[in-house]
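Narrative summary of target 7.
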Amino acid sequence: MNILITGATGFIGQALVSRLAGQHNLLLLTRDPLKAARLLPDPNCRFIDNLDSLSTLNDTDAIINLAGEPIIGKRWNPQQKQRLCHSRWDITETLAALIRRSETPPQVFISASAVGFYGTWNTESLTESSTPKADFAHAICARWESLALGAASEHTRVCIARIGIVLGKQGGALAKMLPAFKLGLGGPIGHGQQGMSWIHLDDLLSLLEFMLNSPTAKGIYNAVAPNPVSNREFAITLGKALHRPAVLPAPAWMLSVLLGEQAMLLTQGQYVLPTRAIEAGFNFRYPQLSQALAAIVQN
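Modeled conformation, tokenized:
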């Protein structure tokens, strides 16, 4: 296949490119093609720094859209909120327009979203059909998904991956947690009952490939493992995997002071289930958190 991938130099993107490059021809959208070529040195990869050079996507079989400013890191002032939104919305809107403009459009458009679509909940289990609660994270995801779904037609199926907390050693949330937990300084956040809907990186890549290669796959998929846990259980399980204590709590008020509104991503959460993936026959290699963390920290 000829596959266009955005966000190829991110944590998920690099891993996906490494998996697909030996099987497909990849066109990678990146702000810095020279840096990307050093990170992803494969003869099956070509690089572009914007979509302006493409008038159609007639020669593209599939698109995987992972682009977006990292949601955690910078304080959510009005300017940063605009960057978070438009780094997702604008590129998705452009891709959808290119698909509609094509005489032989891509067969599939896979676009990332996040479990933040559902807003923050207590302990209820959420599926793809659950009604969301309105907050900033939901607002980002709702428009992001709507723009992608606008590309759907009888020629192009659209899959939306609502991605949870992706666990891998080389990046993402776990890489930020490991230093403190390895020192025995980790622990639950706040009351620790908030849901953490997680997925091992390998399972996420396999699910994206499943969407890519399954002709009947379309619509919304929760890209999470089938067994979400509380934040307290996550901390205890990570501590056990590292053979370290994990009892030092991070007070919610302190995170609110340090991070502002962004702290809600850590102090609140959701228990999200991958109902549609399971119904479609997808098998998770790491359905349990203990399995996933053991595989990561032992490698």
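The chain has a mean pLDDT of 92.
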